[in-house]
């Protein structure tokens, strides 16, 4: 038989590297992502002179966590990045670069959170089937 045959299978026993292990790894990854989100939020609050900061929101119904922009001094005013961008032109290059870099990190962490949470649901479904 050649190496491409569909009838050829690996007869070695499966060694438990299945859904349980995958779910455990995803849980560790998720905790790390949330920790990074918390750190980024704290970092954004600690820079003097900033008009906005990154807030870590927790949606309890889905357990989703995501970062969003908020205005200092005004309670619960959330800002979309498109509303912040035009005001960046009035800032120094260093400030503008800081906000742009911070927003890139916000978008990346939010995407990682969504992808990891979806993968966790898939792994949990597999664990429940066993």
Describe the structure in brief:
The chain has 130 residues and is of the alpha+beta class. The chain contains 3 helices and 3 strands, in the order αβββαα. A 3-stranded antiparallel sheet has the order 1-2-3.
What does this 3D model show about the protein?
With 130 residues, the protein is α+β, with helices and mostly antiparallel strands. It has one domain (19-129). It contains three helices and three strands; from the N terminus they run αβββαα. A three-stranded antiparallel sheet has the order 1-2-3. Helix 1 (19-45) runs antiparallel to helix 3. The protein is elongated and about 60 Å long.
Top keywords for this entry?
130 residues, alpha+beta, three-stranded antiparallel sheet
Helix count from the secondary structure assignment: 3
Helix and strand string, N-terminal first? HEEEHH
The poorly predicted ranges are none
- Beta strand %: 5-15%
Report mean pLDDT, rounded to a whole number: 87
- CA-based shape: elongated
Whole-angstrom Rg: 21 Å
Q: Tell me the number of strands.
A: 3
- The structure class reads alpha+beta
Q: How are the strands of the largest sheet arranged? A: 1-2-3
The helix content, as a percent range, equals 55-70%
The main pleated sheet reads as: 3 strands, antiparallel
C-alpha termini separation? 33 Å
């Amino acid at each position: 038989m050649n190496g491409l045959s569909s009838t050829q299978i690996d007869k070695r026993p499966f060694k438990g590297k299945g859904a349980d292990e995958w779910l455990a790894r995803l849980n560790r990854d998720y905790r790390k992502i949330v920790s990074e989100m918390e750190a980024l939020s704290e970092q954004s609050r600690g820079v003097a002179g900033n008009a906005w900061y990154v807030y870590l929101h927790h949606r309890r119904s889905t357990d989703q966590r995501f970062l969003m922009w908020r205005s200092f001094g005004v309670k619960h005013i959330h800002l979309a990045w498109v509303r912040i961008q035009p005001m960046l032109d009035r800032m120094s290059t260093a400030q503008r670069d800081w906000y742009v870099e911070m927003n890139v990190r916000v978008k990346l962490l939010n995407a990682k959170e969504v992808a990891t949470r979806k993968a966790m649901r898939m792994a949990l479904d597999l664990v429940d089937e066993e």
